[in-house]
Design goal:
The protein is α+β, with helices and mostly antiparallel strands and about 260 residues long. It has 9 helices and 6 strands; from the N terminus they run αααααβαββαβββαα. The longest helix has 26 residues.
């Protein structure tokens, strides 16, 4: 219904009024309100980021514009539905075990710092951060060398996260996620260990944020793939907490609302 209203009017006004009507219902639950808030955010981004989404303006947009103004709000709304089981940390920061892994290779060096990434997805416990996914960003059109460099960094970090999770969960099927952001599109990969002690990376799906109201059904359909990323990430975090003996009462909500 939300998508249809945008298609009919080529505008989001009636769709936003419809969302407000649903939110004002006395029977609306907290979880339903958070899901509606997710839909509202997508429509807001579609309305407010037209300059950024216009390919003619690509020379004026930075990779951080896409990361922090477009994709970060989407990720935040998705993880807010389940009370932020996963926290997002932005800026070029180092994964918790990346420095240790790098130091084990460069044994003769001092003051070693691990590889920095643009966005980290974390499980918190007291003062400790545990990385469960990470992302690197670039503008839509960059040299091939930049893409390969970012991907190699993500693969190294994905291996570190998968190994760390395996040490806790003790399940050979555990895997980590890495994300390559390229302007209005995101590629999602999983990193898996093998019995031969090497790792493989598998492309899972691509999420694209289109710029036209007529394309809103395609935008929603594409963005729902992020739920396929969120659900196993939260499930893995909960299993990790239980293995460590931590208390976590939140039960993940599966997003099934018709749009």
């Amino acid at each position: 219904m939300i998508s249809e209203l945008c298609i009919v009017d080529k505008d989001s006004f009636k769709a936003k009024k419809y969302i407000s009507t649903l939110e004002s219902s006395a029977s609306a639950t907290r979880d339903q309100l958070r899901i509606l808030d997710f839909f509202r955010e997508i429509i807001y981004l579609l309305d407010s980021k037209q300059f950024m989404l216009n390919k003619n303006n690509k020379a004026k947009i930075s990779e951080r514009d896409f990361s922090y103004q477009l994709w970060l709000p989407i990720f935040q709304k998705v993880f807010h539905i389940n009370n932020e089981i996963i926290r997002i940390k932005v800026g070029e920061t180092v994964l918790s075990e990346s420095t240790e892994s790098k130091a084990s290779v460069y044994t003769d060096s001092r003051n070693i710092v691990g590889f920095k990434v643009d966005m980290r997805f974390l499980l918190d416990f007291e003062m400790v951060e545990f990385d469960v996914a990470c992302a690197e960003a670039c503008i839509p059109i960059v040299p091939e060398a930049k893409i390969q460099h970012d991907m190699s960094k993500l693969l190294r970090e994905g291996k570190i996260m998968q190994t760390a999770a395996l040490n806790v969960i003790q399940n050979s099927r555990v895997f980590s996620w890495v994300i390559q952001i390229s302007g209005p599109s995101c590629d999602f990969y999983t990193v898996h260990g093998t019995k031969h002690q090497y790792h493989v990376c598998i492309h899972q799906f691509t999420v694209v944020f289109l710029s036209e109201h007529l394309n809103l059904p395609l935008v929603f359909e594409s963005l729902f793939n992020i739920i396929m990323f969120r659900d196993p990430l939260e499930s893995s975090a909960i299993r990790s907490c239980r293995k460590r003996g931590w208390s976590m009462k939140t039960r993940p909500l599966r997003l099934k609302t018709k749009i």
